[in-house]
Amino acid sequence: MIMVGKTSNADLKSIIEQFLPSLIHKRGLTGHQLKVLSALSACRTSKLGGSALACGDCGSVHYVLHSCRNRHCPRCQGIDKELWIEDRKQELLPVKYYHVVFTVPHDLLELFRFNRKVMYNLLFEKSWETISVFAQDPKLLGAKPGAIAVLHTWDQQLGFHPHVHMIVPAGGIDKQGKWKSTKQDGNFLFDVKQLSNVFSARFVSKLRRLKREGKIKKHVPRDLIKEPWVVYAKQAFGSPESVIEYLGRYSHRVAISNHRILKGTSTHVTFSWLNRKAGYRKETITLTGVEFLERYLEHIVPPHFRRIRYLGFLSNRNKREAIEKIREQLLAAHVTRPGLSRSEVLALRFGKRSVLQCRECGGELLLLESFPKERAPPENRCA
Ligand SMILES: [Zn+2]
Ligand SMILES: [Zn+2]
Ligand SMILES: [Zn+2]
What we know:
It comes from Marinilabilia rubra. The chain has eleven helices and 13 strands. It has helices at 12-26, 31-42, 74-89, 109-114, 116-136, 183-186, 192-212, 240-251, 289-297, 319-329, 342-350, and strands at 50-55, 61-65, 97-103, 146-154, 160-169, 171-173, 179-181, 231-236, 261-264, 268-275, 281-288, 308-312, 365-371.
């Protein structure tokens, strides 16, 4: 029997604080890596300053520490995720959706490590191109598709495993501007074996071209096509809302969430993972603190890299008009609920835990004063 439960309050932030000096001693960090790790370790400490808030009802004063808002931070992503989900709900279509995942063979990992930006872009480009080619084939659909794509770079053990998750509505917009469902009224997308053949061929051919053009560092292995290129596609079941909740689970996920970090000692970190080969059994793995951070570093994306992309008729340029048209044709009731403000979303999703509510009486909090980094309120007064 494996014990899987949190036995200390170790989290990513405390692990960074504890092991960053040894990590720097062992290997150099790029300025960007150091910037991300520093931001995460400063999240909600006096280093980033804080704010004093007063309750409009009972007058009690509350202090909150500022968060880092870094997209790699497990503490900050929860809030962004909820805001993002609310926005996507405004864009739901009354159609079926598919979850498609594009992965690459192991032999390419070295190239990904040394050419992160180029290779991540290539992965996005070729997965989307594959969906487009199938969608625009008149025998399969004959319409322009749309998708939301998200890059993940990790596996359950924090290993390096770049892959793209895509949510694809089962259909597209044809030349006449009409919505057209994929086969069986959207109950079938495309054949995954054929998807993976087209994906691998196009990926490898562009990769070799980039190499010839001198845009790729390191050796490009031979016989890449023979390796397994796995494309997975599954219909996302449930209500339209649950499709969005489902997508939200992927869109703002970070390499490891704090609840999976079970224990930290002066030398080691233990975290839980799901063993897919054993029916998603929960197991634990222990690494030295430095090894843990080295694995974590692999998942810092290049600065300003767009990890979430809106494609085809769901691209930012097209989606407003496209969504309206499709809804009209499918006679779906328009979502009349007005967009919620940031604080309304937080109150809705986090309830009493929302920082905007008074802990004493539930009243609304008003900003009294913000403390810059140097003059932060003492940490022990803060939540
Ligand atoms: Zn109050
Ligand atoms: Zn943070
Ligand atoms: Zn993933």
